[in-house]
Amino acid sequence: MTRNAKTVVAGVAAAALLALAGLYSARLALENPLAAGSADRTVIVEPGDSLNAVAARLEERMILERPWLFKLAAYVTGSSARIQAGEYRVGAGDTHRQLIDRMVRGEVVQHYFTIIEGWTVGELLRALPAAKPLVSTLQARDAEDLAGELALGYGHAEGWFFPDTYAYTRGETDADVLLRAHALMQDRLQAAWAERVAGMPLEDPYEALILASIIERETGIDAERPVIAGVLTRRLKLRMRLQVDPTVIYGIGESYAGDITRAHLREDTPYNSYTRYGLPPTPISLPGEPSLQAAVQPQPGKFLYYVASADLDGSHVFNETLDGHNAAVALLGRSQRARNGGNAPVE
């Protein structure tokens, strides 16, 4: 073998060894744990970030000790140009492969915001700013403002957001979440309306939403919701005033301090169901699925009255007659006075 031939063979062998070493290093890079410590961390990949920028940010967050290993792993897997923008969680013990795969698939961190059954739109608007990192864009201060800002197509937003837990990602806005909640309420309301029983004293799905919002505020016990719905629909049919405290409280608005008085019951507002007949002009809360179902499928019966139980456990006593109702009210009053040390309710 000539000297030149030996040189070529030696060069090829050296190149092969280097290639094998590179492959071995790449394998190690893929399966090596990151330097993420013992706690989960997050990193944000901005739109347009290069692989170098991503590696540098991971190093800044002390997720990587050797950025070159991350870049090598990305190149070997053909992922260097496929990493998606977003917020990513890096778990303790994650490997380069796991993180790169997550970034290529776009498995970004999910955040959650829960709308509670019975909230008003005012309570919803006050809760939204605490939902981080949801981007705050809404300027609305009440249900009328919100209806206009979200372009819902009607003048009042109360009742129109379905209580549920909504997932969102970094960069989404409060309006994005509320529009999803609104679309879901529209779907659930239409589905409930399609299953309504015959003979309901309701003209359209919106009146069902109003009734459901009252039921939502009247009881937290699911089994009672159809019973209360039965009472309220019978009173509507008989042209009796509904006489439910939550409508009065809603009409009082921000001035309500937590104790309803007889003066409040006499104060005429569009929402006072003690002074006015029929349903209030809008919903008074955000009703959940059980209240929607109860509103369109009330329990048959003869009950026309109900009042909180003297046990003060959140349940109610139902009666067919005014005499029976008045006796239950008197019993409740005695129970409240005993609990308050003999003090009478506020007038």
H and E string? HEHHEHEHHEHHHHHHEEH
Low-confidence stretches: none
Strand content: 5-15%
Percentage of residues assigned to helices: 40-55%
- Give the biggest sheet: 2 strands, antiparallel
Strand order of the largest sheet: 1-2
Would you tell me the overall average pLDDT? 89
How widely separated are the two ends?
115 Å
How many discrete domains? 3
Give the overall shape, derived from the CA principal axes: elongated
Measured on Cα atoms, how large is the radius of gyration? 32 Å
Assembly state: single chain
Total beta strands: 6
Number of helices: 13
Which structural class matches the secondary elements?
A: mainly alpha
Task: Chart the SSEs and their pairings.
Blueprint (H helix, E strand, L loop, with lengths): L2 H29 L9 E5 L5 H10 L6 H10 L9 E5 L5 H10 L5 E4 L6 H7 L15 H7 L15 E4 L5 H21 L10 H14 L6 H13 L7 H8 L9 H5 L22 H8 L8 E4 L7 E4 L2 H18 L8
Antiparallel strand pairs: 1-2, 3-4, 5-6
Helix pairs in contact: 1-3, 2-3, 7-12, 8-9, 8-12, 9-12
Task: Characterize the structure shown.
The chain has 347 residues and is mainly alpha-helical. It has three domains: 27-105, Dna Ligase, domain 1; 111-189, no CATH class; 197-339, no CATH class. 46% of the residues lie in helices and 7% in strands. The protein has 13 helices and six strands. The chain has a two-stranded antiparallel ribbon with strand order 1-2. The radius of gyration is 32 Å and the shape is elongated. The termini are far apart.
